[in-house]
Amino acid sequence: MNILLTGGAGYIGSHTAVVLTQANHEVVLLDNFYNSHKRVLGQLQKILGKNLHCVDGDVRNTTLITKILQDCKIDAVIHFAGLKAVGESVQNPIEYYANNVQGAISLLEAMKFANVKTLLFSSSATVYGDPQYLPIDENHPTGPTNPYGKSKLHIEEMLKDLTNSDNEWKIACLRYFNPVGAHESGLIGENPAGIPNNLLPYIAQVAGGMRSDLAVFGDDYPTIDGTGIRDYIHVMDLAEGHVKALEFLEVNNGWHALNLGTGRGYSVFEVIEAFEKASARKVPYHVVSRRLGDVSECYATPQKAKVVMSWSATRSLHEMCLSAWDFQRLNSVAAP
Ligand code: NAD
Ligand code: WQD
Hints:
Keywords: Carbohydrate metabolism, Isomerase, NAD. Pfam families: GDP_Man_Dehyd (PF16363). It is an enzyme of class 5 (isomerase). The chain is an alpha/beta fold. The protein has helices at residues 11-22, 39-48, 62-71, 86-91, 93-114, 147-165, 199-207, 235-250, 268-279, 303-309, 317-331, and strands spanning 2-6, 26-31, 53-56, 76-79, 118-124, 170-176, 178-180, 214-217, 229-230, 232-234, 254-260, 266-267, 285-288, 297-298. It has a domain at 2-182 and 232-262: NAD(P)-binding Rossmann-like Domain (Rossmann fold). The chain contains eleven helices and 14 strands. The strands form four sheets. It has a seven-stranded parallel sheet, sandwiched between helices.
């Protein structure tokens, strides 16, 4: 298949580009490099032994997207492009709706015009809001608590309306839990600009000596050790989930929501310990008060993805930490 990856130079998009190319698909990347670096293209070339076609542009440029869909004879689109920082979305909601929701509308207009009706959308566990029960299945009520999460839910709802209006559309909303880790080569990985918001990149920078210690946001949750529990999933497992989801859509029309998680949660202290083991470095930390908006526990049941598309995550927390550490070690000097 010929597949367009919007936001394809980003963290999850670049790993998915590797897996799709190795599965003999032709990928075209579209990215405005707002939160990624052109350097990634050279790294992808090293991993794959060939250059990938990448267009430097904005997903909100409907004319450009239409041209790519037609010129490259695109069969399916994976829509990764968007802004993803929860705190930033609270500070600047309009920017989040403008990029995420407007970006999706622009893409859908182009897809409709070019008659490309197969789409994977990068959604998030954040659409569920505060868990009402665990593990979270796809029927769990939605109720995002921040503009980022709301933008994801608005898009999901738009996509549902679209499939209701025309049954030729094939759309899967992939609700990622906590993607972490990197490609085994150490050439691509998560490279956040500034102070990392998320746990794994922060720990990696502490282990790498770029930061002195980790602030653990609360040790008074009702969990095994008092720290927050999340469903961390290796980015390569996640990437493979996209290949499976495209196969699923080949034979299934309509709108589908699918959790991509492991089904198992780890606490912050467990992640610190696993990272120390994988890196053979100390990760100094101090406990501070809870971060506003954080929940105690969040993990998926990935049973639906297993049943309908024969996918489940296979990589361990150790492999997640090892690969994140390799990427950190090999890239910390070059990182901007
Ligand atoms: P990322 O920031 O690394 O990748 C997103 C890419 O989209 C970046 O390369 C950025 O430059 C590009 N982009 C942003 N706006 C654009 C626009 N208007 N036009 C063209 N390109 C644009 O993020 P990621 O972690 O790879 O996430 C990919 C998707 O998955 C996002 O939609 C995100 O919301 C979603 N998601 C991520 C996580 C996570 O923890 N990483 C969890 C759940 C869902
Ligand atoms: C994990 C755990 C923190 C940083 C976020 C988004 C979500 C999704 C994934 C996109 C929590 C603790 C963290 C630190 C800490 N993204 N922590 N010190 O909050 O589960 O999810 O990323 O869709 O929408 O909300 O992930 O990695 O920030 O936190 O103690 O410096 O680590 O309290 O328990 P989160 P996270």
